[in-house]
Specification:
The structure holds 3 protein chains of 3 kinds. Helices cover 34% and strands 13% of the residues of chain A. Chain A contains 9 helices and 7 strands; from the N terminus they run E-E-H-E-E-E-E-E-H-H-H-H-H-H-H-H. In chain A, the strands form 2 sheets. Chain A has a 5-stranded mixed sheet. Chain A has a two-stranded antiparallel ribbon with strand order 6-7. Chain A has 2 domains: 100 residues, Roll (Ubiquitin-like (UB roll)); 137 residues, Orthogonal Bundle (Fumarate Reductase Iron-sulfur Protein, Chain B, domain 2), CATH 1.10.1060. Chain A is elongated and about 65 Å long. In chain B, a hairpin with a 2-residue loop joins strand 1 and strand 2. Chain C is of the alpha/beta class. Chain C has 3 domains: 299 residues, FAD/NAD(P)-binding domain (3-Layer(bba) Sandwich); 120 residues, Flavocytochrome C3, Chain A, domain 1 (Alpha-Beta Complex), CATH 3.90.700.10; 124 residues, Up-down Bundle (Methane Monooxygenase Hydroxylase, Chain G, domain 1), CATH 1.20.58.100. The longest helix of chain C is centred in the C-terminal third of the chain and has 25 residues. Chain C starts with a strand and ends with a helix. In chain C, 63% of the residues are buried. The chains are: A alpha+beta, B mainly alpha, C alpha/beta. Chains A and C meet through helix 1, helix 2 and helix 3 of A and helix 3, helix 4 and helix 9 of C.
């Protein structure tokens, strides 16, 4: 009879300059029933091996730091409770499809560049001064983009996307959700500029509508919707442009 | 001095055969059934153009057990494709906002599937009516 | 060592740092703004703020009301001229955020919606569902990418400020991903590094909230002001301390004890009403609500959670599922994910946890610290608006109002300042880097920083909790002195360069211990009760004769901090009785106060 209070974690370890390739290390944590995966990692770091590296901060699934593969699926470590996982060892790996810098820490620079590349800010339809007060935006207009604005940039969707796995330059689901967040905003007029940034193979067209990105999203952002809507937009834009030239 | 050496784990070549991607792979493969059935119809068109004899041969083939088995298989695959396609539908269209709230994906899928089912049924009834 | 020359350096890229960066670049687009953060900007702890940000917008509200709520809420320890400026600028800043795209919740006609918050006479909290801080942070971060003059240093850990000729002129950063050091030279520096709530055990704060900027300024001789005032938020998850927003009560939630009784009526917060009534019952201020919890616990009227923490119930059932989904989706998600409870049909067990440091790096109304060229904004600073107890939804407003001021003032200073003295500064940077490397490599002492951190958090909770005793505070002070000694003998498990988070945590512990000392000694010296500082050892009353004054903690190296006092700026509100509920309404009617 296994002791439910103890749990085995198999963690993918990699230390550059020392390890040629990542390999699993095994740790046992106590009091496992009450711990999230993040708390289990913290307890390992505090008591067993201080060299274990992982990112974390808010502990409440909103800062987006602690995405990792847990039993093979991309999840936030803070909101994944050990007691909710099937019995037996829990495997913890860095997010798929990203370069591993060390242990559970992956490179995030590429993702940040992608979100910077799609003009992630309001390009106003009609500029307003502070004295003119806020723009009007009805709840329906808000609902048109609100879910896309809930993205916490945790990158789980990228770890779930096989096309990003094939092509690291693919703009990917998270950045497209952000693009749609602004394109769908009633205050914004930057749609054309953003569409120009995502035509082509590294833009929306790498997507084959696998759809797992939306399933793993911890905030129900539905990035697959953002990508696929913009395939349509990109296609229309292509033909309209053709017409315009004539 | 700088020991940073990011390690790239390659994506396994058979990712499409593993969960959670199997459902996607099955959906895409079932799309092939649509193409095959298109081929069957096209063959009928060709044999019609080649004259009554040729057409009779085509109709004979349609009645054969092999063809019936093929049609059952194709129908199953197409139905699977239709169902899964409508599950994907909400992910491919702009957000539907009704009374200031986004319509949930499940509702869109349900309505669209219902609509497709009803149209198919109507079509079947019309065809049965015409041929009677 | 790589050297980067900027005009303005901002350390911290949360709400205040990002707002400062944008303000700085708008003030003079020809300048180079370096923006360094130990995490990606969108991980900053602003992200976790839930309820919203206060700004007068309703016709029947006034700046006067916001001023009074803030000053009374702060138990008259506020800088009143600063509060006047703050309330006048809060709404324009919220409109600015709206123009930048912040998805504020709306009324059916498309106008901004506001909600009620604790200690507030009229509803004035702008909100974006219950993810207000998240949306403010992401809006600011995304907007900042518009300006190429803002050169970001993401995931760059600040080891020290560079100070020469009595002037802050840069900082030395450590990049966790490579272990390499960078010197940033700048003609002015803004600290926007956030609070220090992690020095306590149960807290609502992210792991990064370790008081870095406070400690850095403090070590360079800048006093930390009002550090004894630490806010306990009354409704947090027992054990982890994760926050359940005050918006839960703003929307009409009840707090009940184990008998299902709305106990706040026993602590001068009544009368009981079924719908929310401003400044009454659950809409009382945070300090009073946390104190009421403590009293209930002593009376044995709290419940005990499976992990042994005391708690009361936050009951949201009567709000209904639709309202919870619209107004409090994050709260519902947290309760379901972490506790397996749907607040639509089960009350949530909650208890107070440390939430906010009212005090911080002393600045004037223009965010300037006494060290020339050094500015501070946001939770790390004490510009003077919170006094002894911060009003809920005043902290997000502070980030933008004073973030902007800091950005503009730092630009002004940079343009007038002489060129930086590179040689001297680079030598300092090398020394700071060498010190950090020595900590990383030292062996033999055998102390684990994780052990020291737990002991620190435990002693802070015991000595500097909701109610305080002189003897316990003294014990905490002694314990902190001991921990500081033991910290010298820290030995790391990890001596490598790349992503050595063992090393960073040890450096952070150093920051935390200094800040904790400032808190504990400031608390011990304040022999009265005011706002979040409540004593039970003969100093239960507010003592305006002696302590209507800001405490100032001065760094004294290995020794305990020296505590002195500075004046409080009173403009139009003379200290009076701070009352809520029926008494508050009576006093207000009489024109005497509250």
């Amino acid at each position: 009879m296994p002791d439910p209070a103890k749990r085995e974690l198999r963690i993918l370890r990699y230390q550059p300059g020392v390890d040629a390739a990542p390999a699993f290390g095994t740790f046992w944590v106590e009091n496992a029933e009450n711990l999230s995966v993040l708390e289990a990692l913290q307890s390992i770091k505090d008591t067993l091996d201080g060299s274990l590296a992982f990112r974390w901060s808010c502990r409440m699934a909103v800062c987006g730091s602690c995405g990792m593969m847990i039993n093979g699926a991309p999840k936030l470590a803070c909101s994944t409770l050990l007691r909710d996982l099937p019995p037996g060892p829990v495997t913890v790996e860095p997010l798929n499809n990203f370069p591993i810098e060390r242990d559970l820490v992956i490179s995030v620079g590429g993702f940040v560049k992608k979100i910077e590349s799609i003009y992630p800010y309001i390009i106003p339809k009609e500029p307003r001064t502070i004295a003119q007060g806020p723009y009007l935006q009805t709840p329906a207009q808000l609902a048109a983009y609100e879910s896309f604005s809930d993205c916490i940039n945790c990158m789980l969707c990228y770890a779930a996307c096989p096309q990003f796995g094939e092509n690291p330059d693919f703009i990917g689901p998270g950045a497209m959700a952000l693009l749609q967040r602004y394109n769908g905003d009633s205050r914004d007029a930057g749609r054309q500029k953003r569409l120009d940034a995502i035509h082509g193979e590294d833009g929306v067209w790498s997507c084959t509508a696998v759809g797992i990105c939306s399933e793993v999203c911890p905030k129900s952002v539905d990035p697959a919707n953002a990508v696929n809507q913009n395939k349509t937009n990109s296609a229309f834009d292509f033909f309209l442009r053709f017409l315009r030239k004539e | 001095m700088n020991e940073s050496r990011p390690y790239r784990r390659p994506q396994p070549g058979n990712w499409w055969a593993k969960p959670p991607y199997r459902a996607y792979t099955a959906r895409e493969l079932s799309g092939v059934a649509v193409a095959i059935y298109g081929g069957v119809l096209f063959a009928g068109l060709v044999s019609l153009a080649r004259g009554p004899e040729n057409w009779a041969g085509y109709v004979g083939f349609l009645k054969s057990p092999t063809s019936l088995a093929l049609h059952v298989l194709l129908l199953a695959a197409v139905v699977y494709h239709v169902i899964t396609w409508f599950q994907t539908l909400p992910k491919t269209m702009p957000k539907l906002i009704v009374n200031g709230e986004a319509v949930p994906a499940k509702k869109i899928t349900g309505l669209a599937t219902l609509l497709a089912g009803a149209t198919s049924l109507a079509l079947v009834l019309v065809v049965l009516g015409v041929t009677r | 060592m790589e050297i980067f020359e900027a005009d303005v350096l901002i350390i911290g890229a949360g709400g205040a740092g990002l707002r400062a960066a944008i303000a700085a670049t708008l003030a003079d687009p020809s300048l180079t703004i370096a923006l360094a953060s130990k995490v990606l900007p969108m991980r900053s702890h602003t992200v976790a703020a839930e309820g919203g940000s206060a700004g007068v917008i309703q016709a029947h509200d006034s700046l006067e009301n916001h001023f009074n709520d803030t000053v009374h809420g702060g138990d008259w320890l506020c800088e009143q001229d600063v509060v006047e400026y703050f309330v006048s600028q809060a709404t324009p800043e919220l409109i600015q955020l709206e123009h930048w795209g912040c998805p504020w919740s709306r009324k059916p006609d498309g106008e901004i919606n506001v909600r009620a918050f604790g200690g507030m006479k009229i509803e004035r909290t702008w909100f974006a569902a219950d993810r207000s801080g998240f949306h403010i942070l992401h809006t600011l971060f995304q907007t900042s990418t518009k300006y190429p003059q803002i050169k970001r240093f993401d995931e760059a850990f600040c080891l020290d400020l560079l100070v020469a000729d009595g002037r802050a002129q840069g900082a030395v950063l450590l990049s966790p991903s490579t272990g390499a050091f960078t010197t940033i030279l700048a003609r002015s520096v803004i600290l926007a590094t956030g609070g220090a709530g992690r020095v306590f055990r149960q807290n609502t704060n992210g792991g990064i909230v370790t008081g870095d900027g406070m400690a850095l300024a403090y070590r360079h001789g800048v006093p930390l002001r009002d550090m004894e005032f630490v806010q306990y938020h009354p409704t947090c998850m027992p054990g982890s301390g994760i926050l359940f927003s005050e918006a839960c009560r703003g929307e009409g939630g009840y707090l009940v004890n184990k008998d299902g009784y709305r106990y706040l009526q026993d602590y001068g917060l009544g009368p009981v009403t079924t719908t929310p009534r401003n400044k009454t019952m659950e809409l009382g201020p945070r300090d009073r609500l946390s104190q009421a919890f403590w009293q209930e616990e002593r009376k044995g009227r709290t419940l005990t959670t499976p992990n042994g923490e005391s708690a009361v119930h936050l009951d949201l059932r009567h709000l209904g599922l639709a309202k919870l989904k619209e107004r409090l989706p994050l709260i519902r998600g947290l309760a379901m994910e972490f506790m397996g409870i749907d607040p639509a049909d089960t009350p949530i067990p909650v208890r107070p946890a440390v939430h906010y440091t009212m005090g911080g790096i002393i600045t004037d109304i223009q965010t300037a610290t006494p060290l020339a060229g050094l500015f501070a904004a946001g939770e790390c600073s004490s510009v003077g608006i919170h006094g002894a107890n911060r009003l809920g939804s005043n902290s997000l407003g502070e980030l933008t109002v004073f973030g902007r001021v800091a950005g503009e003032q730092a630009v002004k200073f940079a343009k007038e300042a002489p060129a930086v003295v590179a040689n001297k500064l680079v030598d300092q940077a090398k020394a700071a880097a060498a010190k950090a490397v020595a900590l990383r490599d030292q062996k033999g002492g055998g102390e684990r920083h994780s052990v020291l951190r737990k002991e620190m958090a435990a002693t802070m909770e015991r000595g500097c909790g909701i109610y305080r005793l002189g003897t316990e505070m003294q014990e905490t002070c002694d314990k902190l002195a001991e921990l500081k000694q033991r910290a010298k003998a820290i030995t790391l498990d990890d001596h490598s360069d790349v992503w050595n988070t063992d090393w960073l945590a040890a450096i952070e512990l150093g920051y935390q211990l200094d800040v904790a000392q400032a808190m504990a000694h400031s608390a011990l010296e304040r022999k009265e009760s005011r706002g979040a500082h409540q004593r039970l050892d003969g100093f239960e009353k507010r003592d305006d004769d002696k302590y209507l004054a800001h405490s100032l903690a001065h760094y004294r190296g290995d020794g305990p901090p020296e505590i002195s006092y500075g004046p409080v700026k009173i403009t139009k509100s003379q200290p009076g009785t701070r009352a809520y509920g029926a008494l508050g309404e009576q006093l207000e009617k009489d024109g005497t106060h509250a």
